[in-house]
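Hello everyone,

My group is preparing for a crystallization screen and wants a predicted model to guide construct design. The compound we'll soak is pyridoxal-5'-phosphate. Before spending weeks at the bench, it would help to have a computed complex in hand. I've included the protein sequence and the ligand's SMILES below. Output in C-alpha cell form would be ideal because that's what our pipeline reads.
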Amino acid sequence: MFESSEPQTSVVRRTAMPPSHSRPVVTPLWPSVVYRTTDADELDRLYDGEFDGYTYAREGHPNAEVVATKIDQLEGLGPDAPAGLITGSGMAALSVALFGLLNAGDHVIADHQLYGGTRRLLDDATRLGIGVTLTDLGDSAAMADAVTPATRMVLAESVSNPTLRIPDIEAVAALAGEHDLTMVVDNTFTTPRMFRPFDHGAHVVVHSVTKLLAGHADVTLGYVAATDPQQAATMRTLSGTLGVTASPFDCWLAERGLHSFDLRYDRAEASAARLATELSAAGGVESVLYPGHHDHPDHDRAAKLFGSRGGTLVSFTLQGGRAAANAFAHAAPQIPFAPTLGDVATIVSHPASSSHRKLSPEQRLAIGITEGMLRVSVGIEEPDLVINEIVTAVAKAAASA
Ligand SMILES: *Cc1c(COP(=O)(O)O)cnc(C)c1O
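Reply:
Good plan to model first. Here are the C-alpha cells for the complex, ready for your pipeline.
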C-alpha cells in the first residue's frame, strides 16, 4: 500500500503493508516523520496543493488533521472554512496566534484575568516589541480607552480562570468591528458544547485540547483556527517553522477522548451545577462562583451567551484562608489536589499557590483570588459520590478552623 511491493533485500527496509480489502474502523496511528513520493514532480504537486498528502510530519500529519477536523466541526466551522490547526500544547496555539498575526510595533488588548501562562506569553510579546494592555473586557468603556492607533488584536477567554468571570463578548466583537481588530477567543473553559465564539464575532478560536476536549489528563495539545484563509495559512506556516507540532500519539489519544466528549461534558456539568448549589448552603464557605447560578456577578451575560449551561468548573472560597484550603485538601485525599482541569476524574486546585503564584498578593486580590479560594474541575464520577466527598471535606475544614 505505502511501500514498494518489490521483495526487499534487507530487513532494515520497510515491508509493504499486507494487502487488505477491508479497512480499519479505528484511525491508525501514523508516527512516520516523512512521506515518500514517486518523484520530484509529484513532490512539487504536493507542495503546490494540487495533490492531497503529507511531506514532513512537522508540517502536518494525518492524526493531527483528524483531531482538527473534529474540533472544527464542534466549533461550527463548515467545510468551506479554513481547517483548524493542532499544536503541541495550548500555549503553542496561543503563541502561533500572537506571533503569527502580530508584528513588532502592533498592540494587543487582553483581558486582565487571563490564564497565567498566557499572561507570561504576553510579557514575551512585550519583550519582542508588541504593545500589550491588560484591561477588564467586561467593561466596554475600559476596553475602548485601551485602543491605540497600533491596536490590531483583542484577546479574551470565554470564561476566566479561576474566578469564572465572563467578558462582554458582544462589546468585544463590536470593538473589534469598529477598529478592524482580530478578535481571538480562548474557548478552553467553555468548550464548543457551551459556547461557540465564531457565532459571536470571533475571528480566531484557541483551545488547550489538553483539558476538557481530550479529557483524560494524558495528552498535551492545542488547537487554533481562523475564519480568514490568510490568517489560517500564516499560523500553519509559523507552526511548522517553530516546530510546535503535536505528537501523532497524543493526537490519536485526543481523538479517542473526543468520541466521548459530549457525554463527559454533560455529566460533569450536571454534577457541577448540583455541587455549586450544595456548596452555597454549606457552613464555612464564604462564596461560590458558578456561571449558571443567579448570584454569579456575570449571570445575565452568562445566560445570554451560554443559555442554561453553567460549565464544569466551580470555584469557592473557604473561610479561614490558606489553613482552611490545606485542611480541605487533607480531608479529601481521594481527590487529586493538582493544577489542571478537564480530566475524567474530579480535581481540585488552589490558584493562589499554582496558576496565579507569580502574581503578588495585591494583584491576586485585585482579581478576586484569595488564599481560601479553591477551584473544582468536576469529573464524571457518580454525582452523589463527588458531591458528598467535597461537602464532607468542606465540613471537616470548617470544623478544624
Ligand atoms: C491550560 C490552559 C492553556 C494552556 O494550555 P496547555 O495545553 O497547558 O499549553 C491556555 N488557556 C487556558 C484557558 C488554559 O486553561
